[in-house]
Amino acid sequence: MNQYSDFISSIYSTAFNVQNFDRLITLSEQTLSSETAHNAELQALRRECEKHVIEAEKLLDQLPTAPDEDLQKPVFFVTPNGKFENPNEIARNLLKITHGDELAARPDRDAFENGRNNIPSDADRHIAAIRLRQDGTGKPVILIPDAPAPDGRVRYVGLDAIWHGTAEKAVQALYGLTPSEAEVLGLLMSGYAPTEVADSRDRSVETIRQQIKAITQKLHAKGLQEAIHLARAVAVSCQPAQTSPELDRRRSLILQDGRTLDFHEQGSPTGHPVIFLHGCLGGNRLPQGADQALKAAGIRLIAPARPWHGQSSGHLALLNDPGLYAKDLLALADHLGISRFSLLTYDTGSIFALTGAQVLSDRLASIVCTAAQPPMRSFSDFASAPQQHRIFAILARTSVPVLRYLSLLGDRKLKKEGRDRFPETIFTGSEADLAACRDDEVLDLMWTGHHFHVENGSDSFINDCRFIASNWSENLQKPACPVHFLHGTNDVSIHADRISVLATKLRAKTTWIEGAGHALPLSHWKPVVDALIEDLSSRQNPCR
Question: Tens digit of pLDDT per residue, the chain (544 long)?
């Protein structure tokens, strides 16, 4: 896996070197000021890049699929000679497995040996599940093995804990198990041996064996493994759709044209409605501290996933007119029974809010824009931004195929390098944002937000780049309601002058957040909530 990751990274870094990009930026900027200046050289360079893209994509298509490094589960290999290979970060931290470790040196080696000697067909893989103990907590971790590869290696992947209260009730109703038997079955399914079940329930081993006999008879199973197989099938089939407060607040709306609009809520369920339009980073959630502050202030934050993001469907018409998204917001407000609402935006979300304000009309009370993306009049607007940001802005205007290719490689690079390297890749050149990501919660929101954005492919990122690189203000009119910009003094992605120009055009209020970078609503959420509270307190003077 390390070799694969290094190979992807090398393509990422050599496909477009610094000199090529600097030349491309220069040519693109000069072409904007003169339709003929350097246009032939620019087109030649673009064709050369796109030719490389075609060849590189063919090469990538021929590569073997890299091992699935599920970032929420432990993944690792065991070689025929009994060594661990390529554990992912979760396996290293959770199970203290290190590349090159000897299986024979581990106290749980017997579990691995039994698993390797009893790997059934793909359909019944989970029968061979083994249980290890988490380092430190002692909680069980369930792992299932793949069939051995041609070289004899066995890959182990963590299994989500799927036994739950609904499953216990289901096996009682379906098969007549007693509550005690259902609990025993759940422990067995979770990888506990009969002796360990006896210890945990303070019963004799013989009592547990009698219960196992009764369970297999009631399930009409040939033995314990088949009973466990059946129990897992029941648990999966009746898995509750919502298993946590976080998921309880995630819902979907089917729009009139059949598209899906996914949304999430935070704050007070009955408070003043504020629709949060997320950016190109960070997902559609604010930190837990902000959630508590919103509840205390009586603010209901409704955060739709914009088209192409999360589970929300794409909408090609938006590429030419992002203001059309206002119709989706009206549909969401009607669905929730909301007559009037405010908008809170982050980054790219400001584009949709400001271009759609006229459509929202008297339904819209106010707009608060954090770390907003102003219109990009020319490439000089990004001249002071970190190089990786300039690159994507340039490609969005000059070559979408090259942008697609680079975003694919970048996504692979991020996933292979993992959570801890994420800030370095995304925020190199921005000390404020690198400092913000030292907060574990901010880093988690950024990291999970990345997966939220590319959940259904890279179109979300590519299209956001196109919005960011567009001059969307040509027909922009001042919204009928108040507009308030919050921007970090240390935001190197969006220069302060660009915010000032846009705020002046809209006659908007501007607040500068000292020390904040582009991750402002995640790292400095307090002034954001304060701005919403201020907006709410001034509601006695509605927009005209």
Answer: 344 444 444 444 444 455 655 666 667 666 555 545 566 777 776 676 666 666 655 655 554 444 444 445 788 888 888 888 888 877 887 788 888 898 888 877 777 766 555 544 444 444 456 667 666 555 667 777 776 777 778 888 876 556 777 778 878 877 889 989 998 998 887 767 788 788 878 899 999 999 999 999 998 888 887 787 777 767 765 655 444 444 445 688 888 888 889 999 999 999 999 999 999 988 999 999 999 999 999 999 999 999 999 889 888 899 999 999 999 999 999 999 999 999 999 999 999 999 999 999 899 999 999 999 999 887 778 777 777 777 777 778 777 777 777 787 777 777 767 788 889 888 988 999 999 999 989 998 998 888 888 776 788 999 999 999 899 987 788 899 999 999 999 999 998 999 999 999 999 999 999 999 999 999 999 999 999 999 888 765 544 3
Beta bridge partners of 513: 488
Strand pairing category for 364-370 and 483-488: parallel
Amino acid at position 99, single letter = H
Q: Are 45 and 395 in contact (CB under 8 A)?
A: no
Question: Phi/psi zone of residue 86: left (φ > 0), alpha (ψ -120 to 50 degrees), beta?
Answer: left
**Residue 513 region, left (φ>0) first, then alpha (ψ -120 to 50), else beta?**
beta
Neighbours of 377 (CB within 10 A): 12
CA atoms in the 13 A half-sphere facing the CB of 253: 21
Pairing of strands 250-254, 75-78: unpaired
Block residue for tokens 């309880």: 248
3-class DSSP state for residue 464? helix
Residues making up the chain, counted from first to last: 544
Instruction: Spell out the residues 6+ positions from residue 32 whose beta carbon is closer than 8 angstroms to its own.
Output: 378, 379
Tokens of 161: 């804990």
Q: What share of the chain is helix, strand, coil (3-state, %, to 5)?
A: 50, 15, 35
HSE, CB side, 13 Å, CA atoms: give it for residue 357.
27
- Distance CA(130)–CA(191), nearest Å, equals 6
Contact status, residue 124 vs residue 105, Cβ threshold 8 Å: no
Tokens 């929202």 -> residue: 360
- How far apart CA 511 and CA 197 sit, in angstroms, is 60
Q: How far apart are CA 309 and CA 189, in angstroms?
A: 36
Helix (H) or strand (E) holding 77: strand 75-78
Phi, psi of 90 (to 5 degrees): -65, -45
What does the DSSP 8-state code read for residue 222? S
Burial of 51-66, coded b for 16+ CB within 10 Å and e otherwise, reads eebeeeeeeeeeeeee
Say how far apart CA 396 and CA 467 lie, in whole Å.
8
- 3-state SS class at 275: strand
| Helix spans in 63-137 (H) | 89-95, 109-116
